[in-house]
Amino acid sequence: MNERLLRLVSKAQLFSSVKRETLSSLLNDDNTYLMRFKNGEIIYSSEAFKDAIGIITSGNAKVMKKNSKVMVGKLYLGDIFGCQSLFVGKEFFTNEIVAGCDTKVLFINKAAIISIMQLETNFSLEYIRYLSGRIYYLNKKIVSYTGGTAESRLASYLLNSFGDYKTFKVDMPLSQLAVNLDIGRASLYRAFDSIILAGAIEKEGKSVRLLNKSVLASFIK
Q: What is the pTM of this model?
């Protein structure tokens, strides 16, 4: 593994406690491999399941609701996926991860993860912290998407969709977005108007541009 990938993995919170020599040794064996995916290609799903966790090393990916066009999240450089299902199997992986552009993913399989746990005690604690954080995040996301005003639900969706970027495209009809947020279509349009008038975003067609993250976050109640 080259130095860039080693630095990228070591910066991830999950691997922050692992000694450099341990990480370097384990990531250079056959339990770790780099794969390339073209835009739109499925990276990870219950049908394309890998007994491994993945780390985005270039490009980005969309987390899609299985058998639908609904995006539930995005993954960017250094983001990790697959931790929740690594020890329970493909039946528990209910989404699809799709390349958002030409994307590279580093896969670290279960054997390597178990080896790190055996060699580095703190890594097991970091793994538990990571899973606990994901549970908290998902619960918070459920609450924000299903409670509060239309503006609050839309603002939560927008903040999640922007991630580290300033623009994104709504990849579904607004009628479907209204269903996902459990609000009426007219309420969704009014919510967009309110957030635009506040100076938080600009919208042209399906393209949305972030202008002021703090203003957008202020809509979340």
A: 0.64
